[in-house]
Structure formats: structure tokens, C-alpha cells
Design goal:
Distance between the termini: 32 Å
Largest sheet: none
Low-confidence stretches: none
Order of helices and strands: HH
Shape: elongated
Strand content: under 5%
Helix content: over 70%
Structural class: mainly alpha
Mean pLDDT: 87
Radius of gyration: 16 Å
Length: 63
Amino acid sequence: MHDNQLVAEFEEETVELLAEMAEAEGNSVDEQLLKMMAVYTTTNLISKTERFQELLTEQSKEI
């Protein structure tokens, strides 16, 4: 599966999860805000995953 497609699917699932959380807490759901939060969450997760991969690569070179 293509990376962009995976990111889009993750963002969609994140929007659904955030909506469920907001509704469970009795909060109204702003669809645009949820999408922005999902993009931020996804971007942040990708960035941290890439950094973690770099650290693992560096560590494996030391071993």
C-alpha cells in the first residue's frame, strides 16, 4: 500500500476516534477541528517514528 494512502487511512481512523471520544465526553464535534487534529497527530506520529528509526539505525551501527 502506498505511504500517502496509509497516512490518509490513519487520519480517517484518527478523526473517527477523536469524534467518539468527544461524543463520549458530551462535547460537540466540529468536523474541521477533528480533521486538523488528525493531521497534526498523524504528522507528529510520523515525525517521531522517523526519529526513532534514525536512533535505532545509529544504535545498530554502534553494536
